Amino acid sequence: MYSRYTSFSLSGQSYINTEQFEGRDWAAFSMYTSAVVHELLVPDTVVNLVTAGEKRMYCGNRVIHLRQGDILVIPAGSLVSSEILHAGEGFSSLNVIIPDEVITTTPVRYSSFVSGEMQLLPGGNCQALLKGVLSALLNKSGVNLHPREWQSRIWRELRSHSALAAMLQRLSQSRMDPLMEQLSTGISDIREMEDLARAGCMSVATLKRRFRALYGCGPMEWIWKMRLQRAGLLLRSGQEPVRDIAYSTGFSDVSHFYRLFRKQYGVTPVAWRMNKGCDQGLGA
To answer: Which CATH number describes the domain made up of 3-173?
Structure first.
């Protein structure tokens, strides 16, 4: 199940260079020389720049295929499934945390709704800022700004994407950390909305309202989407039988799993395993 992303050190890394601020990691450059799969609970907003190689990020009913130069924004509280590809070519990326205290400094108002899921960004100024962080991180000299200044500059650039910035503020101001902690290890066990509300220490009415505001769907619909997201990752990255994957991700009826999987991804689990589902890349 999902591991809490409390530090940037993850399994499979061949190299990592991290920087700390006030006792916690705020930026890291990491490299991988072999294929690896990660399932993570990401408690804080993270901006990720791919510097080499390719990986898949599973995001609800989408698979985002990231390549060199792509930027991905991972909102606070996300349950993330990722698969680093093409072991022979290697993979590297920069991750920068944008903490709540930076995100909530300036209110962002925007009428359009963006669901609280991972979002691709065009390059532009944000890419230049991230490359500046990378240069300071690796060279330990030159363009050295205070970590909070780097984070604030990146946030100012994100604010130019008003709908995205408004979504990130909604998540920062309405966090559901206890619930996400419970789901990171027990998402396959939730059967009723009352179970979910109990895990989050809130009423069913509050649970419904928060999920609708943050994700644009009901709590149980979101749960099924996350279960299918895990199944999509396991089908492509492992060799377990489809039936076993269905059971391990919380489905008690394999035919029900097939129906929901096809509805979410547009193909059967078997076709998906053969890599016939569509990946969403930058600009798709």
So the answer is: 2.60.120.10
For 76, 80, 216, the CA distances from 261, given in Å and listed in that order, are 26, 18, 20
Q: Which residues contact 23 (CB under 8 A, 6 or more apart)?
A: none
Residues 42-83 pLDDT 10s: 999 999 999 999 999 998 778 899 999 999 999 999 999 999
Which tokens in the block code for residue 58? 């599973």
Spatial distance between the Cα atoms of 69 and 276, rounded to a whole number of angstroms = 25
> Which of the 8 DSSP states describes residue 187?
G
For the domain covering 177-273, report its CATH number: 1.10.10.60
Q: What is the pLDDT of residues 185-203, one digit of tens each?
A: 999 988 889 988 988 889 9
Residue 52: burial class (beta carbons within 10 Å; 0-12, 13-18, 19+): middle
Backbone angles phi, psi at 271, to 5 degrees: -65, -40
Task: Show Cβ contacts of residue 269 under 8 Å, excluding neighbours closer than 6 positions.
Answer: 231, 235, 242, 245, 246, 257, 258, 261
Please provide the size of the chain in residues: 284
Using CA atoms, how far apart are residues 207 and 199, in angstroms rounded to an integer? Answer: 10
pTM above 0.70, yes or no: yes
Q: Which residue has the tokens 């930026």?
A: 27
Strand pairing report for 24-32 and 13-21:
antiparallel
The amino acid at residue 16 is I
| Residue spans per domain, the chain | 3-173, 177-273
